[in-house]
Amino acid sequence: MNNLNTSNAFIFNAEIDANYLNSLYGDDFIYLQEVYETVLDDYQSLTDNIEYSYSSGNLAALRSAVHKIKPVFGFVGLVSVQEQCQRFEQICGNAGSPDHLTSDFESLKNIISQSKQIIEEEKKRLEIFNSNCS
Amino acid sequence: MSLSCIIVEDLQVAANYLKNCCEKSGQVEVRGHFSNVTDALSFLNSNTVDLIFLDVEMPGANGFELLDQIAFSPKVILTTAKQEYAYNAFQYNVSDYLMKPFTYQRFMEALQKIQPSRETISTNSASDHIYIKTDGKLIRLNNDSILYIESMGDYVKFVTIDNKKYITHNTIKNLEEKVSKQHFLKVHRSYIVNFHKIDDMRENLLFIKGNEIPVSKANRADVFKRLNIV
Asked: Which domain CATH number covers A46?
């Protein structure tokens, strides 16, 4: 994670890679707010898909569901979470059964849940930031 | 606008970002966004585009199944990063991969790759030969000497009757318009065959001097029309 968590006047959460976001969106905070809104709109269905795949013991579907949500974290600057999804995909590919994944899955689930809170908070702060700028 | 495209992507944030990149480039007109293969196919049954931005893993059919079913050969840029798709991507003449999320600069690099080569082949469709540019020189190939032409991403391979292979920078789509219609027929998005060299055909495969050539569903009817079945 970069130490620089500011982009112009907006100060991002420490978990968010501001430089990475800057490489994607520049200083377009209006667009970034839309990105966060879009991600939150889809978040529940993406996480439900992960949960359902795990509970049904379908490793291929679980891997695919995690693969699907993975870039979402990149779009919102949570690059480390994106990397953890990648690692989980690999673990999932090597696991013989869902029983071998219990601790890794619980860990990922917590990270994904915490990430949602961060995204929600950032979206709210961006709304305020953008309304003050306009 | 010089290129028309569709986006086939079920992740909304990725599709929006891609649309934004297309608009920003001023080079690509987005004619539609589809979140599954069925809807994309429905559109492509009555419309053509130059380019498809294609996710592979989607609910229902995957992206490659879409490419199997369309009757023309657009350029394809995959928006996925799985290594296991590399072989398929090669077969389907995929121009580039974009690992989500990608920067605008990376998007523009991918766009630059899809400009078709127009300088590596010289031919007249009524002629009995073509010239291809390979290894820094122009080589004449008589139509009768060519068995088939195979896509290799941004390159194509000419396989000749003496089992020589010539690789040149070009695309099947571009060649399809240039080679002699009396000799050649596209049978798959990755293959053009010399019609006079076909030994036999079984289900979805053609055999030419021991080489197996796949025939796509979309091209199967054309192949049968050209076969001199008695």
From this structure: 1.20.120.160
